[in-house]
Amino acid sequence: MQTTEERQRNPWLAKLHLDGPLMLGLIALCAVSLVVIYSAGGQDIGLVQRQAIRMGVSFVVLFVVAQLAPDIFRTYAFPLYVIGVLMLVAVMFFGVTGKGAQRWLDIGVTRIQPSEIMKLAVPMMVAWYCSKVPLPIRFTSVFMGLLIVLLPTLLIARQPDLGTSVLVASSGIFVLFLAGISWRLILAGGVTAAASLPLFWFFLLRDYQRQRILTFLNPETDPLGSGYHIIQSKIAIGSGGVEGKGWLQGTQSQLEFLPERHTDFIFSVFSEEFGFVGVIALLALYGFIIFRGMLISMRAQSNFKRLLGGSITLTFFIYVLVNIGMVSGILPVVGVPLPLISYGGTSMVTMMAGFGILMGIATHRRLVMSQSS
Amino acid sequence: MRKRVPIRNHQAETALFGRRAIVSLVVVGAVFALLLSNLYKLQVTSFQEFQTRSNSNRIMVLPVPPNRGLIYDRNGILLADNTPVYSLEISPQEVQDLRPTLERLVALLELPEEAIEQFYQRLYQPRRFPQITFFDNLNETQVARFASLQHQYPGINIEGRLQRFYPHRDLFTHALGYVGRINQQDVARLREQERYAQYAATRTIGKQGIERYYEGMLHGQVGYQTVEVNNRGRVVRTLEFNPPTPGSDIHLEIDVGLQEVARHQLRNRRGAIVVLDSQTGGVLALYSNPGYDPNLFVGGISTGEYRELLNNPANPLINRATQGRYPPASTIKPHLGILGLHEGEITAESRIWDPGWYKLEGVERRFRDWRPHGHGWVTINEAIAESCNTYFYDLSHKLGIDKISSFMGEMGFGKRTGIDIHEESTALMPDRGWKRARFNEPWYQGETLSVGIGQSFWTVTPLQLATSTNIIATEGRRFTPRLLRGTEHQGTFTLVEPIEDLPIELSNPQHWQTIKKSMTRTITHIRGTARTAFLNSTYTSAGKTGTAQVVALSDETDERPDVEDVAERFRDNATYIGFAPAENPEIVVALAIENVGGGGRNAAPVSRAIMDYYFADEQTKREILATIRSEREHADN
Q1: Which of A180, A239, A329 sits opposite B51 (nearest CB)?
Q2: Residue B27 belongs to what H/E stretch?
Q3: B50 touches chain A (CB under 8 A)
Q4: CATH for the stretch B256-312+319-636
Q5: Residue A154, Cβ neighbours under 10 Å: how many?
Q6: Of A48, A155, A283, B252, which residue is least crowded by CB atoms under 10 Å?
Q7: Does domain B61-252 correspond to CATH entry 3.90.1310.10?
Q8: What is the value of pTM for the model shown?
Q9: pLDDT tens-digit series, residues A48-74
Q10: What are the C-alpha distances in Å from B494 to residues A47, B176, B231, B490?
Q11: Considering all CA atoms of chain B, what is the largest pairwise distance in Å, rounded to the nearest integer?
């Protein structure tokens, strides 16, 4: 017996293992991306073309991954995780340094970024681990899960790549949360974290890191130094107003007052040119994709699929939260792109692979009797 | 074999996931609401603030300097022009290795080495613009060479602007003055006058002469340009342009030709010549020798060059025509004659016997005439024409110092004439009060006699001589000498009216005629002191020579030492006053030449040359100027 959903599903899309609404949301985001990149990149059509090619590649990856039955990921979660961790260790010793961080591994043909692999390997590994135990998971399992998450997170954090380590950590923790950590444990964890903040501040953070946090708390104290980016970004967003200055009309971006216009700070360009109305529409689009992702996960047929799908979806949300929070001045500056909008390829490929897994979860279904009576 | 697994409640696990998923979605919703509320705060609540800050980021208001008014002579010949110059401007904070960069620039553009030291001087001085001029007046080759390599020199660029240029160089320096860089004192003064905003983009200001006196007229109104700039401050486009109002053009009374003749006449001699339009007080020529090139000051004079001017013993920086203080010597005899007639101490016919000296009762010393055996019987006619000292010893003794100094004050001595340049000295008209204040001594009668022949403490400027002589020429009219003839603003020419004080009224206006007649005799009388100088002139004229002793050489002897024997700086100053035509004066000339000897031989011929030029027809004028110019070229080579 089929659910209503499956009956309505377009047979063509089902055969291609694609989820229509999710696909529509992703395509819409990519379209917005190209439009904004054209404006943010100083109307450089070459930039738009290069990004379009990356999008094409990413969609191919999405399509290929969607063809795989999600159980394969369960099978290979452990080896993938181990290889990923080994590669991270290798990066520590033999990594290629770029932009002040040691992130890449040169394997002759090309350079790969192991931390990107971990964005998917970690949730797979934790989901695999949790799928073997009864839910809600017990304290010991939570502890094991946290260890699985912590190892790669720390390795990535010391590259240093704060943005990716936050994403990797949250992808693992989301699995644990969805696997039902008891609320009491969550509360205890929260209290412990809060209590250890002063320890962090006084003993673990270096001077420049403290400075960064201070600047974040009050950017106006250093308007031309590190506070500059945030101030200019807030000016860009704020001056967009309700309706925005219009496409290609954003003075903050066109006159280059904004830093990292087509990458991390692209949301500021978007807000400046399309205003609060545009912001609502964009967040609605993100909201729709997240909602669709969670719906697919809820309908999944095994704990592994549910946990993996939910984690991929919520990590996507973390991208949105951290990036928008950062450019609008309520979170510290961490290098996280606005998903599928920011210019750049690496994280987009990973993300699309994630959406490929989600589509696989949605479409590779065994025909079983509905468990709900 | 089956592994033992605990019995799992799949339904409960699915439900658990469902609950957690819904909690997640609620949290996602809440976070989105939080993000949106923050964005609402930025974009809606604080929109005004951020819009303002965005605009102040990108919009800059740049002042645009007005073009300075041009200066012409009475015939429309340009005396002060604005020419485009290209200067190398440096923003020191944008240049990393300042000195090596400057050294490379010097090598690249073949600039003088001193430019670097001068730049460092300017660097440590307070300045009004973020950029500092490294080198003014780049030529086209230098501009082209730098332009092609500009990208290698961040923080350095070439700026084109209009700069003052004085095509006649030293010919008009003392009348025109010059403009120079605005310094801290100028800034303070402009602030006081609340005109500083007008100078927001202006680099130079009138420092001397006409340029300074008519600064307000010449400068114009600043304009504004509202521009959009990018994050590096580079102008992207102009949003609004309020053009500046150019300054008014100024036309001077000065005649280039007359000025050239004056310069030619003075050549290597120190001195000054003033020529006035008798009927208006307009200054037709005002020349002080030596002069200097005012263009030196426009872009900022180097310390070395300035020191050279300052230490030059000939004092080129002094405007001798208005600041030179010369003993008037015999040139004030006509003025004293007027006073004598007015006071009734003499008449046109009254005469005295001149034995060659004058003796005051109770004073041992004899006051000598320049002519050892005297002039015999003299009336005012001979006294002026032959410059008889004894006559004026007697007259001044009868008048007394009080009447003399008060009347000479009326004639403009001891006061500024009010000419339209600030560089003017009052010179000195002595009286009892002054003597008491200066030396704490009473006034001695003998000093009155010295005053009677224009010696002693009495000093005058050539300009005062000219204006006072014009009072005689115009029979009492008192014009304020003036360089400005008219102004031209946006195509409208406005002539300025002459400025005239109340005239001097004499007891009998006939006295003017008497003195003017006697001054004519200076030229026509067989023993007239300027007879030789004015022989065969085509016009009539009147005048008076003067020979001022620089040092009292020999009070006790009859002999005047031969001019050639005396060290140059002890030689007499030659002075002359004159006007022409004698009956109906058009011009007045006054001049003083330092350390050359007698006025009849040295000063009168200069006046003759000037008057000849003035009364010549156009053709002759051209020929005279051509001769002068070719002589100058020969002298230069």
Answers
A1: A239
A2: helix B10-40
A3: yes
A4: 3.40.710.10
A5: 12
A6: A283
A7: yes
A8: 0.73
A9: 999 999 999 999 999 999 999 999 999
A10: 64, 20, 48, 11
A11: 165
